[in-house]
Amino acid sequence: MSEKRALNIGLIGYQFMGRAHSHAIKALHVFGDELPFRPVMRVICGRNEAAARKVADHYGWERVETSWENVVADPEIDVIDIVTPGDTHCPIAVAAAEAGKHVICEKPLALTGDEARRMHEAAVRNKVKHVVNFNYRQVPAVIHAHRLVTEGTIGDVCSFHGSYRQDWSMSPDVPFVWRFDEKVAGAGSMADNGSHIIDLARYLVGEFAEVTGQSTIFRPERVGADGKPKPVTTDDAAVFLARFRDGALGFFHTSRFCPGHKNGLQFEINGTKGSIRWDLERLNELEVFVDDGAAPGAEFQRIMVTEGGAHPYVGHWWPPGHILGWEHTFVHQLYALLKAIAEDGPTSPDFEDGLKCQLVIDALAEAEKSRGWVALK
Ligand SMILES: NC(=O)c1ccc[n+]([C@@H]2O[C@H](COP(=O)([O-])OP(=O)(O)OC[C@H]3O[C@@H](n4cnc5c(N)ncnc54)[C@H](O)[C@@H]3O)[C@@H](O)[C@H]2O)c1
């Protein structure tokens, strides 16, 4: 029996992200030596008790609750992990912070900038650790790209191209789910996919100065659970442009209507001395071009980011070349939160990052209405 004290986790939600986070919490054992406590899967919460219990049994959660309020009020719980749709993030996170719990919340952080600000203020006021799960910051190749940009390897950044394209909602047979309801999801691809790519742009390039864009709904009606048509109120696709504070330009495309793109998150950064590009579907690889004038006809070089130096967590996983996957990003993000709790250190990305991303999404909604450019304050 370990002598380490327990750090009790309460997970709110049990479906897609519920499974991804449950898997990640179980895999935290790879960082076991680094942590002064044992993460304990104490309670999982879902309104449908039988369905939540099934996930609890598969993944090893000790208890099931049907009310998130009970989980947040439970004095035994140290960390609240929020993996529910966007309209629930603000009430759960604020209540959790007020109850003195550390919080990790799925992206996008909230439905609006006002909500995100309330969440950030509650976390800061109550001195709890707070993380928004922009998990793609935890890909070793993305961390390496950040390092190359920061060290000036590609010079001053001139442009950022980001796209996050999928095709899951194209069929008319896809029923109405919460992602098509703006009251629950906030926006469609612009917030769901867009929040990830906006966060990566902030991480890799810097703060947004102004934005403009347009979105569209290709399939305005879908069949609800009652068999009746329901209006779709979130976008299927969006395009937007940005100017960053340091002068770089940004080009973005988010969509659920790009056939063949299952989870196609890609970016390219162009600087005065070189370029970097990355594709989630080949997540261990980074392509780098540096123009040092020495090699005419030089091309992009492919780097496998599975070795020390490029990879802050490499010692915990496998030998070089033994690649990591999408699920490892969740393990890294949870480990970063637990490390911050253990050391009373900072978290990243935190609710302030979630807020800043949300303000870009709010500005895009405003720009779409006014058909102009909107400055970020
Ligand atoms: N980081 C990523 O890569 C990533 C990927 C997918 C989804 N997400 C985000 O994760 C969140 C959840 O998405 P998902 O795909 O898991 O959705 P989902 O529909 O698969 O699951 C949502 C869960 O929330 C539960 N829920 C809803 N309202 C609740 C309430 N009031 N109380 C308790 N439980 C409630 C549902 O029962 C379900 O378990 C969203 O914010 C989404 O944007 C992040």
Describe the protein in words.
This protein has 377 residues and is of the alpha/beta class. The chain folds into 2 domains: 5-135, Rossmann fold; 136-319 and 356-370, 2-Layer Sandwich (Dihydrodipicolinate Reductase, domain 2), CATH 3.30.360.10. 32% of the residues lie in helices and 25% in strands. It has helices at residues 16-27, 49-59, 68-73, 89-98, 113-125, 140-150, 182-185, 189-192, 194-204, 326-343, 351-370; strands at residues 5-12, 37-45, 63-65, 79-82, 102-105, 130-132, 157-165, 208-216, 221-223, 229-231, 237-244, 249-255, 264-271, 274-279, 285-290, 301-304, 374-375. The longest helix has 20 residues, at 351-370. It starts with a strand and ends with a strand. Nicotinamide-adenine-dinucleotide (NAD) is lined by residues 12-18, 45-47, 68, 83-86, 88, 106-107, 133, 135, 192.
Report the helical percentage: 25-40%
Rg, rounded, reads 21 Å
Overall form: globular
Overall pLDDT metric:
96
The profile of the biggest β sheet is: 9 strands, mixed
State the helix count. Answer: 11
Instruction: Provide the low-confidence segments as ranges.
Output: none
The fraction of residues assigned to DSSP E strands is 25-35%
Number of domains: 2
- Based on secondary structure, the structural category is alpha/beta
Brief synopsis:
The chain is α/β, with parallel strands linked by helices and 377 residues long.
Question: Mind sketching the topology for me?
Answer:
Layout: E1 5-12, H1 16-27, E2 37-45, H2 49-59, E3 63-65, H3 68-73, E4 79-82, H4 89-98, E5 102-105, H5 113-125, E6 130-132, H6 140-150, E7 157-165, H7 182-185, H8 189-192, H9 194-204, E8 208-216, E9 221-223, E10 229-231, E11 237-244, E12 249-255, E13 264-271, E14 274-279, E15 285-290, E16 301-304, H10 326-343, H11 351-370, E17 374-375
Parallel strand pairs: 1-2, 1-4, 2-3, 4-5, 5-6, 7-12
Antiparallel strand pairs: 7-13, 8-11, 8-17, 9-10, 11-12, 13-14, 14-15, 15-16
Helix pairs in contact: 1-10, 4-5, 5-11, 9-11
The structure holds nicotinamide-adenine-dinucleotide.
